[in-house]
Records
---
Amino acid sequence: MRAAWAATITAATCLAGALVWGFQIYGQITLIDAARLAHWDNGVQRAAASKAIKSGDARQAARFGKAAVSAMPFDQLALAASSGDAPQERRTSALNTAAGLGWRDAVTNIALVEAGLTEGRTDIAAARVDAIGRSIGAEAAAPLADRVLAANGGVAALADRAAYRANNAWWEGWLRSQPASRQVAGLRSAMIKSVAADDGTWLRNIVRDAELGFSKAGYQAEGLTLWQSTLAEPQRFSDAVYDSEFRLLGTAMPAVGGEWQIAGKSPAAAERLPEGGVRIESFGTGSGAIFSQAISLTPGRHALTVDSDDPQQMLTWNFQCRDPGSPMTAEPAARDSDQIRQVITLASACQFGVLTAGVTANAGGEARSAVIRSVKLERLP
């Protein structure tokens, strides 16, 4: 008898729930009305809480979240939503319980980020931003990550998470996104600088990703400065030029920052020589860039000196300052068989300039070659 009575109640409850969902599906009542009617139905309460969260109604979200908890079985979304208007101690308890049920629930993770920022626990906020990035992706995590960076201790907290290198894709997507301001770019740089300098490929990758994001906002100088400050081998600088003997040119690692970068559609081939330097082989009749390097220079006079074997005078060198409103003058290059020398004068600092090597046009199309042993760009007294 008792079993039959329980079965009858269960059937009646299921039927009532089905009727409520049915009315909702056919548009006879709103989801909010359905939640008020079916207070025993966890699914209806969850749906109403989710709708309130999406519309930004924190009061209604908390109301239906509590109803979902009461309806049982409670779950992460219900616990997180119900904590919205609770006292801090109860809110923390509810969020901790929700977090214990798993790390992938978006509502729980977002609530924990907000709680962490409010209560000064940037370590918790950073961990949950990382969870959002790994479970949803960079688009959802990026704005929250920038907010965590701006909080006290946020730079160190996110640097700690970056060291785990879990699911690199969202870090790449975030750092390649355009920063909202120079301040945000500076905070991202500070976070990257906090990553261990011996973390090899991972550090190079996030520096490259940040440079791409900075370039979208026109912050190339910030990207170059970041690269310079994270170099594992700063001794490779010779005055303003990095890797002046081309010992890293064309290696397996992609070029980052101020390293030599081979042009995508070059009219010549560049072959690194074992003893240092590079051999240039020109093919066809075209002219254009072979490789280039990003450089920053102080105000004043600078001498560009290229030590090379170039009997056919096929090589060209050009420096351009890309800073807006930064005037510069370049004297005509003095050239002989084994050296090119040119004096460049800058009225103000050039935070982001580009030094480019190229080849002249070859009307006859005959084979040409040259060897570049070293390049210097040094400040004159």
---
Amino acid sequence: HAATSASYDQVSILFSHVEGFHDFSMELDPQDLVNFLNQMFSQFDRICDDNQKVHHGDDGFFFSVDTIGDGYMACAGLPEDNPVHAHAIARCALSMVMLGRQGYFPHPKNPDHTLDIRIGIHSGSCVAGVIGQRKFAFDIWGDAVNTASRMESSGKAGYVQCSDVTHALICEDFECATDGAKLVKGKGWMNTYYVLRQYNPRKHYTV
């Protein structure tokens, strides 16, 4: 099997993380941990699927890419172009953190304690492809992917942090609060924002 790849000029990428997951995971037996992650990732998949169907039907504008531990990565704008990729990713990110705030992810051993989701998003270009010989895997690479990951790791629990690039694409339709310039590992100083809400949640961004 030869590796296949394609370049995408305009995509938006999301990374999520469960705040305090390392300590939390050490308290659980393996089956409880797997059940928790399965429930959470199933909810995230549903959010991505619902967002795609509302705006574009089944045209493949949204793609859930990978999970690593408690991390979830998704991308809007591939495999088909999507001019509103940043809006799509922002809507999904807000829905995901809201589930955490509303208590949808309780601690299996302590139901009164709910776990917050931290999300970072960024927009740019990437390369996507299928690699592997025995087990095929679809993945994405590029500076935009790395920057989205940094937006997650430098953000706050219960919030969606975005780069200034994504902010410029969504600021007319989403309320955002500046977090000023911060030193982001591997990126230097960056202006970042927290996405707070969509001004008109009923608005559909058609192409």
---
Amino acid sequence: MNEVEYKMCKQMVKRLTALTVFLSAFRAIMSFYKGTTV
């Protein structure tokens, strides 16, 4: 594995982590919103 592949891999992991955090936050907000309205 060379340096370019390593950097690309790191960037992909960063993006996946950000997406996971965003999705979990979105889910939490939606459940909170439903809990307050219902």
